[in-house]
Records
---
Amino acid sequence: MNSKNLAPRNLVYIKLVSVLLGLFFVQLASAALPIQKIPLSSGAQLYFVETRGIPMVNIGIDFPGGSVHDAKGKIGVSDFTADLMNKGSRIRGSLQDEAKIVDRISDLGAAVSFQSGSELTTVRIKTLSKTEILDQVIDHVSDILAFPLFDGKVLAREKTLEISALKDSETKPETILAKQFKKMIYRDHPLANMSTTESILRITGEDLRQFHQKFYRPGSMKILIVGDVSQEKAIAIANRLIANLPKGTINLPELPKLEPLAPASSSQREVRIANPAQQAHIQMGITAIPRNSPDYFPLLVGNYVLGGGGFVSRLMNEVREKRGLAYSVYSYLNPGKSSGFFSAAMQTKKDQAEESVQLLRKTIQEYVENGPTPEELVAAKSNLINGFPLRIDSNSKLLDNISSIAWHELPLNTLDEWTNQVNQVTQRDIQIALKKYLDMDRMVTVVVGGQ
């Protein structure tokens, strides 16, 4: 069948899918979500959820291959490897450039993306489940995965674009803030790795080929499939996707342990950076917990009261409602595989920066000392539990949750037990966790702008 003729028919399917989405995911969110974990002969692990309500399939591939594994002096290799994966490949024996790959994926009504982060490289595929379409998408992506070209001209173009974007971002206060905060939280740990103009200029096509050969291996991959296929079909899809990749598992060097921030004087844990921006950008935070920590749910519920609950949070009440210092202020918990961090952030007028920093610290400190009120705890748990269906109300959201379960090695019934775990959190649990992790004498602060 001519692929060009598939596009109009695919649009009909997609419109039908959008009509069915609402009703289906309301039912799905309230139902049990049996996640099947299936070992494959290649060493890869398949995580599969069968959802028959809509004729679509979402597929993910996750594996260790982020910037923590980039060589010193060449930070950015993992990013460029992922970026160039679908910008030139040998597909079904013939060379295809970026335009042909994009056209082919588009004609099939699918979406394919590659992305590298600090620890993981992720592949995401979204396609209709109709066999004649699905099989073509899988064959296409299988070749993209295994036979990237890493064309020198394309790499040179992407490096130029990245350097330009990097230079532009270095003038933006939000980027300056994020980089400085990351540096203070992670210090000399590989999680602090950030590309520079110098490191990007050193990267060659051979670096990308070596990175691909080393890290793109089935034995270290988690393959995630959610959608309108049987278990047998899901296993076949997973095997076909990785069939042509180099065999074996990555022999990763063990990453150093991220040590908690040590107590320090106020001047040692605060950085203030001049900037001509009209507002001061403020962020403070501290190293926290991995996702599999038993303190995760107490901190999740506790943070909802502090700054994660939007307009009903303590920080919003103190900073915005009572004093009008900011339009938005929030806090969040970012748990990782082996560690993580807590952070609170806001923007305010330059001449109010110092007042805002002190108010943030005071509000957090008082909350750590006293914890939530019984009324705040009831409201937080109710909002989190009632909002849980929105966390899994699409195939893509469900896939992201399964990705987290696989990467953090959580129990397969994590989603089934999530609301129970929230409901079991007590006021004492929160107070113990807050005092254990949110030590103001170890919390770092960055202010970009201000006096």
---
Amino acid sequence: MSDQEIKNRTQETAKKLFGGGVKMDPPYFLWKAFDKDLAKDFSKFITGNLYSRTVLTLSERQMVACAILAALGAKAELRLHVNAALNVGCEPRKLAEVFFQVATYAGMPAVNEALGVYRDVLRERGEWPIE
């Protein structure tokens, strides 16, 4: 695949994930502030190569990302990916269920933190409460 094709896939995928909902800067802007070339490489790999694969849908990839971030307690990154998950069609009830599943492996404090982040994102998007 040519560099231009990867660049196009990166931009298309990033727009789907981060183009709507809560206004927040993706990590790319932070990376870019430190190293512009490395930021481009990270972005092309993560968004252009990994997230654009079709084995899992973007919605499924976001549910996986949200579960892992919840288990890690990475609230800022979780906020970004909860919003992205909703942008690519994750069903709100399924995403909540993903967070409850985290209890088995990371404990209830992780669930509570994740649900709090999720609720805040839904409120900012005008989608709270979920039905």
---
Amino acid sequence: MASAAEQLAANINFGAFNKATELKKRILFTLLALVVYRLGTYIPIPGIDPVVLAEVFQQQQGGILGMFNVFAGGALGRMTIFALNIMPYISASIIIQLMTTVSPKLEQLKKEGEAGRKKINQYTRIGTVILTALQGYGIAVGLEGFASSQGSAVIEPGLFFRFTCVITLIGGTIFLMWLGEQITARGVGNGISLIIFAGIVAELPSALVSTLELGKTGALSTLFILFLILMVIGTIIFIVFVERAQRRLIVQYPKRQVGARMFGGENTHLPLKLNTAGVIPPIFASSLLLLPVTVASFSSQGGPEWITTIAALLGRGQPLYLFFYIGGVVFFCFFYTAIVFNPADTADNLKKYGGFIPGIRPGKRTAEYIDYVLTRLTVVGALYLSLVCLLPELLISQYAVPFYFGGTSLLIVVSVTMDTVAQVQSHLLAHQYEGLIKKSKLKGRNR
């Protein structure tokens, strides 16, 4: 059986891809959806002077707004209809998931299956609209305070502009939310992650050119650029290594006799990933930082002195920003792992089918042991994510290197790429099995 599976995996090639028409349709749909997203990042919000905005944002891009501009694929810097990207939806999802742990009503909905999930999704969409409206109004007020030597960033400030800005941003975010759901259902990969991935990758060429320009002008030494390239390569290798790392718990099934045949007696394993939460913690932590940081950064333009101080402390590489960001990453590592993996349910399923971990009693003791192992794996995973996200930030904050080469960006790009490739391989594997089943049925009929 194992040799047959290995042979089947070895036969997954371009020939199999050419025959997998459904997979090709899914990939084509995903690419077209991402093209639509990229086109939207160039449609500006009405009533804004792009020249003045570009000049003002140039002064802000070294701070945390530059990081969110990366996730938005440059849409925030151009102040387009997708300026907030998918971040309000992610923030709303986090809030709803947190509330399910404290609200009995939401917890009950979560247990009701598909109907409950639809209701929770509806609450998430409502929360997305509310958060987008709050962030959109903050951006509109902040834009009215932006000015340069060429004039104000807003052509006609006032209530009408604020209303237009808020409605436009709500429409853009809701459209991206819908687009992400369509990619997940009809395309390949997770739609929300792919939208963020596309934004980062689309701006990489310009980031590389600007970095080389800094080296050409002497702002960065050749030695430092080489060190940066080696750091990026090393970070990618480290991410791939850790993302594929597993702790395998041995699971044994006892022998049982059914009629004249003997079944069971096999040993298998329960794989626990070192980083169960994946790329979610950095995205969640960044998303939650967006609302207060946006308000603080935009309000610092001619606002009170204390807001200006907070905006400065939330700059890239600053202590307050690093504290909230790493704290959020560690928290969401444990929180998201607790959501996606339930040791009690896993232990019950093992007990139901007669499986057990050698030396551990089935049931409660098995759940406690799995939780024990998973907690320690999550600690290591949280340290890994903190290291990947923090060290490049500390280095890059001291130099004028684009954020696209930071650890968070690399983590998102590498993780989403690995997940998407894994889904493509699973589709190809399923297509191969379908072909084998059809052949076996034809042979049976011929006989």
---
Amino acid sequence: MQKVYSHENLFQVSNLKQLLEQQGIDCLLRNDQLRGGAGELAPGDVWPELWVLDDSRKAEAIKLIDKVELANDTDTWICNECGESNHASFEHCWKCRNEPRL
């Protein structure tokens, strides 16, 4: 088991966990309950972490995470199905649920 990602935002880490699981990469979310320790513990120690269970899939997981983070650097994308404008962090169109981002 190896850590592939950590971020202060639990929602972001949870979304990446779901993305990896959709791609068949088993993973585990850790430190998701440590937010209450902020102030008592170092900030980085309470950030949620994403760990892959199969070490051989670590590189694949990191590649997917990097792809998502690169896509998040843009402002919006347009759905090919319905033409709706979507925030870059959306994996599917919020209106019609089409247009996978991967």
